Amino acid sequence: MKRWAPLLAVAILGATTTASAFCRSTSCAGECGRDDDNCKTLGAPLFWPSLCVGFALSHQSSEHIPFSEFEALAIRSIASWSSLACPQGEASIAFVAQPASTCHTAEYNLTGGNANIVLFQDAKWNYKGADNTLAKTTVTFDAVTGEILDADIEVNHAYNEITTGDATVVYDLESILTHEFGHFIGLDHSLDFDATMNATYDPGTSDLRTVEEDDVAGVCTIYPPNRVATCEPTPHGGFSDACQLVAEEPGCSIAHGARWDAAAADPLGRNPGRHRPVGGIALGLLATLLIARRSGLRRGPSSR
Asked: Which segments of 146-211 are extended strands (E)?
């Protein structure tokens, strides 16, 4: 049987840290070991097995942001990770927009349909670090193979002033979503201060809207050109735009640190790591471990 547990890990990085090495999220939880670039040295690296991934926006959007504006910015954010040029061709990952979801919960259903949802939390934030976490990404994966089964992004509008334009920028939605989509596809925080996947976000900036060289190198490693796979955007278990489970505490987050605490620990999240047993499951013929990991972006006072 499979066990699954949500894991929330937070990496708080200093404002002056510099490096030039991306990190991949892995299946390792707890004491995983870290190399000189602060990348995990244990566990299976996470990845989507398909050449394309579906995503769905919550039809509720935010009470402060019209759905049309939310949709436009989300598409721009995910486009930043699309059609990236690698040394031997184009990165083998694409994204497919699916119908807006009526579900307003980050969840993974083991026995039915799912959706990789992007949503806002306007009224409350049911995670630690509510006052300094900008967003959370919960990734559910097979802990033996590292294959990603589901990913959900939550934006903390309950405790942060999220802005959408250029005239007045506080916590820029497009920047937050671009960082979170990096976790969505399997990237962890990077020590490269210029990288979009660096764990800190400075209020009033929009630098994270576009990916940088370090981010591109990460995507090209996870999704190299000419990867042998097919394009199947349908979520694991089939697409469903409605909630399937009783709401449980979500998985990853981004903090602002005061920054994004990515699923553990990117600049937009700020929650400490922890494990919580959820239940048992068997996947195919393998008795493997499924884990839901939360990552987030934290806000930070440093200047980029």
From this structure: 148-156, 162-163, 171-172
